[in-house]
Every structure is written in structure tokens, then in C-alpha cells.
Amino acid sequence: AKLSLIGVAIDLGAGTPGVSLGPSAIRYAGAIDKLTGLGYEVKDEGNIMANKPISPKTDGIKLNNLDEVVRVNTELCSKVAEVMQEGRFPLVMGGDHSIAIGTIAGVLQHKKNLGVIWFDAHGDINTEETSPSGNIHGMPVAVSMGYGHERLTGIGGKDNKLQTDKFVFIGSRDLDAGERKVLKDLGVTVFTMHEIDRLGMTEVIERAIKIAGDGTDGIHVSFDMDSMDPIYAPGTGTRVPGGLTYRESHLALEMIALSEKLVSAEFVEVNPIIDNNNQTAKAAVALMGSLLGEWLI
Ligand code: ARG
Ligand code: MN
Ligand code: MN
Ligand code: MN
User: Fold this and answer.
1) ipTM above 0.90, yes or no
2) Which of 73, 195, 216, 242 would bridge 101 by S-S if both were Cys, CB 3.0 to 4.6 A apart?
3) 283: Cβ–Cβ under 8 A, 6 or more apart, which residues?
4) C-alpha 123 to ligand 1 mean position (Å)
């Protein structure tokens, strides 16, 4: 199979700098060898680069670095759509989680009825109104469902949006008050750490694959490294204790691979500046292996 590796060197959606170096860290951790070793014909598309914002705040708008986040995600959306047009699997590496806006908008150009499994300690479903920080990496889920600033929701087309009942969260443990309400109102499925503890990852991921995979055009996996416990992924800007173990996260991705419903994926929030010997990028590469079929023999 053909696969395109797309780096997005941006940290303007996050509160902590450095995650723009994530794509390089993931390449140094051996992503291309890993994927080539799995039999993929890998094309490294290089990085989409964010510039330093000229004015981080647009007048009267609470969103940080809006102009540049919109520009980068618009470019990413086109790139992902183009790669899929060529029959290649898009594997996006971040970068902060705001890049899910562009990735998902691009995938939606080809897969209108897309299911999503979103691994994250956070909800990332804030809008300008509910956000405690103004950081756009806390908003991509809202935007991809059609909620938020029109310059963000306009990327890839206003009508190209996700269905809330085909979206699943896994690993949640730090949801803002406004996010809890929105999640309830929209009826989105959330498997918090509590459900993972009680049901076990096998049951949780089987249910998630059903919700995101049955009757859809396929599943997109958005993997925020902070879904893992900080013991395994210390190099990420918004660490929350009590996360997924190394084996739980691999098991989940292996079972998604087995479902044969995966159409696109992204690994985000790898920040080498605050990491421990590139441990988090190495974890991301190992997870890519599991998601892309390393254990299917
Ligand atoms: N909920 C917080 C916020 O809106 C943190 C978001 C963290 N998001 C992430 N992709 N790491 O600012
Ligand atoms: Mn997160
Ligand atoms: Mn929080
Ligand atoms: Mn996130």
C-alpha cells in the first residue's frame, strides 16, 4: 500500500512552545524505517510550516494566532485531499492538535460519512465562548463538527462536517466545564479513564469501532500523545496523570488495524523540547506500527 507522511510544524495552537519540532522528532525516532519495514511504499511529503505570527491576537477575537492557524490548516486540508486523491494513505504528524482541523477537513473531501476515534486526555471541543485559554488546540473537535469561529469551520467547506454520533473519545480525564455540557448536549460517546478501568480496553475499543465504523466510509484516528500516561509520554505540553498505559494504547490501535476500517490517521502533541531523550516520539512511532498493521501476521 502507498502511504504519505505529512509533517505539520506548528505550535501556535498550543500554550506551550516546542511542539512544532514534533515532526522532526518523529522522523529521528525512525518513522520512515518503521513504515517501510511494514511494507508500505512511503512518500515523505515534508513539513507544512507555520510562520511566527505577525500579530498573535486578531482584534476583538479571543483565539490565539487565528490567522496563521487558519492558513496552515487550509494548506493541510488541500494536502490531505490531494494525497488521498492519489490513492495514498495520509499519516499526519504534529504539531499541536489544532491540525486535526485541516486533516479531518481534507479526509472529508473523500469520505463524507467519516467516523472518528479520538484519543486524548482532553475534550478539545471548546469554542471561543467556552475556552479557558483561547488556544485553538483545545477546539478542533468543535470545529470539525461545525461549531466555532467561521474562519475555522469554513476550512474544507461549511457543509463538510463530522456527524456527532459517529465520533468517539477515548482516554478523557480533563474536561472543562463547558466541554462537559456540550458533550452531553451533542450526545457524543466518551470513554473516560473510568470506563477503561471498568470495562477494559478490549471492550471499549470494540464498542468504539462499532460506533465509528458501522455504516460509515471508514475511521480516522486522531491520537494526542497526552492520552497516554505521562510516564510513557512525558514530551507533551498538557500532561495529565492517570492515562492510558503503553499496552492499552497499543492494544487499541492494533484492534483498529484488525478492523480494516482505517482510512487516515494523525499523531499529535509530540514536544521534544520537554521530552526525555525523544521518548515520546519513539512511543509515537511504535504506535504508528501497531495502527498500521505491525501485529497482523
Ligand atoms: N482544555 C484546555 C484548553 O482548551 C486544554 C486543551 C489541550 N488540548 C490539547 N490538544 N492538548 O485550553
Ligand atoms: Mn490533549
Ligand atoms: Mn483543563
Ligand atoms: Mn488534543
Assistant:
1) yes
2) 73
3) 225, 228, 232, 233, 246
4) 7
